[in-house]
Amino acid sequence: MWRRTLSSTNRCLRCRSAGLKWIWSFPSRRKSSAPGLPAGQITALQAVDVWRRHFEENGVSEPEVSSRYIVAHLLGAKTMESLGRERLTEFLSREKTEQVWRLCTRRLSRMPVQYIIEEWDFRDLTLKLRPPVFIPRPETEEMVELVLTDLRRKSGPGLGSESQLTCVEVGCGSGAISLSLLKSLPQLRVFALDRSQDAVDLTRENALRLGLQDRLQIYHLDVMKHAEAVLRLCGSVSALVSNPPYLFSEDMMSLEPEIYRYEDPAALDGGEDGLNVIKQILTLAPLILSNHSRVYLEVDPRHPPLVQQWVEENVEELQYLETRHDVSGRPRFCILQKEESNGDCKLDQD
């Protein structure tokens, strides 16, 4: 998948990935001007080189990769390699050259490439993206695989339509998780929630583009404020999955420009200990899940022991099953399971 070689977004989020040691601080924003349009004709390769050098001079991360993706996108491809040498050495039209300059100028302001080209791949999907909706990261693909493995095992070979699987996603963003699950499991229905109207609209748009809207219900709800509404809409489901806001609030001050200028801070800031939304999800989980169904959370590597301790002290209906590591070896995913319940669980309004 073409987004694998663009690591700037992943590096931008390392403060979500590995704690304070991964955070960089940045000087105050300085305005950078674009190079002048060339007087004569220019090829795609020459345009890439001009902007690579300009990005380097102005401290833009991933200078060559950024310029290559933008130029390839404007030529109707996902990668420069897929275009062929002949196409890359043809002169660009004046209109196309102006488009390159316009989009690369946005990257000069540290706008992420995903927002500039307005799409990105997630597993086997190509999703539309736009600010301020959170850009899905590769680690989240790993969580989708964990959920799929368990749901496939749960469904078994003889599942009928009357035993349809259901899942709730809290914080759907662009719809990456929900839509990936729906595409892979034809018997699944998903309830997708987000506090952001922008996210709700983008998830709905992506679902329509991918033809998955019939098995997806999308709600503009904030689990921190609308708990009762969530419980009314999403009862007795097979799984609850979330990549919630989990940054420690103090980390918000040290985010890279690609994040703090463009992505929704509410999709990142998890409060003083990064657990505000996570605790609310875990409080609601026993009231939403059917017996023996699971919660899947993507968290900060500092969180798994904190989540386990908090659940053991506060949510007796949930059992902490395990912590799974991401491809980089960091403790990234918490998996919990609802134990047998007599149906008397109630939401504590206090």
Keywords:
14 helices; elongated; single chain; 9 strands; seven-stranded mixed beta sheet; 350 residues; disordered N terminus; Rossmann fold; alpha/beta; 2 domains; two-stranded antiparallel ribbon
Question: Can you describe what's shown?
Answer:
It contains 14 helices and 9 strands. Helix 4 (63-74) runs antiparallel to helix 6 and helix 13 (276-288) crosses helix 14. Strands 5-4-3-6-7-9-8 form a 7-stranded mixed sheet, with helices on both faces. A two-stranded antiparallel ribbon has the order 1-2. The chain is an alpha/beta fold. The longest helix has 18 residues, at 138-155. It folds into 2 domains: 31-109, no CATH class; 122-338, Vaccinia Virus protein VP39 (Rossmann fold, 3-Layer(aba) Sandwich), CATH 3.40.50. It is elongated.
In short:
With 350 residues, the protein is of the alpha/beta class.
In order across it, which strands form the biggest sheet? 5-4-3-6-7-9-8
- On the 0 to 100 scale, the average pLDDT is 89
- Helix count equals 14
- Strand percentage lies at 15-25%
Integer tally of domains = 2
- The CATH homologous superfamily of the largest domain is named Vaccinia Virus protein VP39
CATH architecture of the largest domain: 3-Layer(aba) Sandwich
Helicity range: 25-40%
Q: Helix- and strand-based class?
A: alpha/beta
Q: Major sheet: size, sense and barrel closure? A: 7 strands, mixed
What integer value in Å does the Rg equal? 22 Å
Query: How many beta strands in the DSSP annotation?
Result: 9
Element string (H = helix, E = strand): HHHHHHHEEHEHEHEHEHHEHEE
Topology-level CATH name of the largest domain = Rossmann fold
Give unreliable regions as ranges.
1-5, 8-29
Quaternary structure of the protein: single chain
Instruction: Tell me the distance between the termini.
Output: 47 Å
By CATH reckoning, the class of the largest domain would read: Alpha Beta
CA-based shape = elongated
GO cellular component, one term: mitochondrion
Catalytic activity: L-glutaminyl-[peptide chain release factor] + S-adenosyl-L-methionine = N(5)-methyl-L-glutaminyl-[peptide chain release factor] + S-adenosyl-L-homocysteine + H(+)
GO molecular function: nucleic acid binding; peptide chain release factor N(5)-glutamine methyltransferase activity
Organism: Austrofundulus limnaeus
